[in-house]
Amino acid sequence: MDRLVFTSSHGNHYQFACCSVQEPAIQSKSKKEKTEAEGGSSKAEENINDESCGQIGQGVGAAGISINRDEYLQAYRDLMFDRNQAQIKNNLLHRRLAEYYKKRKLEHVLKPLENVPHLEEKYQQKLLTYQELKEKEEIEIADIKSKLDVVQVQYADKLEHVENRFNALQNHERNTGIGLIYSKKGKPIADKTVERLLTLQRRKCEQASALCLRYIRARNAVNELDSIVRKLEMIAPGLNVAQYEQLYIDKQNYLSKIEEREDELIKNRVNCTEHNQMLAHIREKMHHTEEVIDFAECDFGDAEIELIRAREELGEIKSKRDHLRWSLEAERMKAGLLTRKDLLRDFQDATDEVVKLKEKKKQLESQINETTKLVREARRRMQMNQTINAESNNDSQMLL
Question: What average pLDDT does range 132-153 have in this prediction?
């Protein structure tokens, strides 16, 4: 494995551990040049040693310092060649690493690290904490070992005491058992029988102690399993698995209710869209009816103006008629006796004038009739507009 180091244009340092890969031609050239360089360096060392050996004890003052520039130039060229080869190798490996990281989508490895001093401080802090934990662990291990030694000593003492007592008990039983006589047979009990009974007793005691130890281990294992099961049942302080299952069931029920409410919401949204469409259609109709009402109001205003104008003309005509009546009455009063020629002439003239005035009256009456017809037509149109307005208002109220 080689560790590659390169510096970017921003002054950031990168390190990579990679295998030394090189082309076979480059390797052969580097090996040949290295062997030549080693041979040249060994020859130069031998020459220097020979010269030094020859110079010792011989004319030190007369001999001058001889420097072989060719050897140094050759060594410099060899080093430069090695440097170039290492640079080519470094660039090649960098390129391969970049391609590898790009294929693996690990381009963040090539990016420079940020906040390096901060990371170093964090690393140092973690090392200090790790050292403290390790020291605490060593202290705890030493304490546990000391306690274990004490417990082992106590166990050994108690075991020795129990074995001594058990041996003393068996010795006492052996002493008491030897020389006893069977009550039924009347023969003494043999020593082998006593020993056999004592060994059987020892074996049964060992089996009982092993069973007690096995029972204690099983009891401890059961207690541990019970504690583990309790811990598994306790998800959090105050929460059990049964409560979690009940909460899960409640969640499923609420989710089903939420789905039902969502269905209802979808239906309500569909109804709202339909009602909005209906309201938009009604608004369009209202705009159209408003436009019709505006046109009708304009026509109604024109009819009112025509009516006012006709009323003014009618008043003028009535005033002219009254003036003519008054003039006729005045002329009649002025006529006097009809025997007088002048009066007759005046009467003839008056009759002629009356005829003319009648014709004029007829003309005025025809004009009055025309004006009355116009007024009646205007009134009729006004009544029609009023009825249309009332009907439109009723329709709008019914729609609302």
Answer: 94
CB 275, CB 339: distance < 8 Å: no
Helices (H), 234-340: 241-335
Token pair for 276: 């909005």
Q: What is the pLDDT of residue 337?
A: 55
3-state secondary structure of 6: strand
Residue 280 CA to residue 127 CA, distance in Å, equals: 74
Residue 53: the pLDDT is 41
pTM: 0.31
Q: Yes or no: say if 198 and 170 are a contact pair by the CB < 8 Å rule.
A: yes
Closest CA to 21 of 77, 93, 69, 91: 93
Residue keyed to tokens 């024109």: 302
Q: How far apart are the C-alpha atoms of 119 and 216, rounded to whole Å?
A: 52
User: Measured between alpha carbons, how far is 15 from 116 in angstroms, rounded to an integer?
Assistant: 14
- Pull the structure tokens for residue 86: 């290492």
Contacts of 44 (CB under 8 A, 6+ apart): 68, 71, 75
Task: Give the tokens for residue 178.
Answer: 């030897």
d(CA 112, CA 121): 18
CB atoms within 10 A of CB 168: 10
Pairing state between β 239-240 and 234-236: antiparallel
| Average pLDDT of every residue of the chain | 79
Q: Tell me the two tokens of residue 348.
A: 């003839």
Who's near 328: CB < 8 A, 6+ residues apart? 354, 357
189: DSSP letter: P
Tokens representing residue 365 in the block: 């009456």
Residue 229, token pair as written in the block: 């099961």
Q: Give bridge partners of residue 4 from the DSSP assignment.
A: 16
Q: At 20, is the secondary structure helix, strand, or coil? A: coil
The residues that bridge with 15 in the sheet, in sequence order, are 5
The CA distance from 218 to 214, in Å, is 6
CB 18 within 8 A of CB 109: no
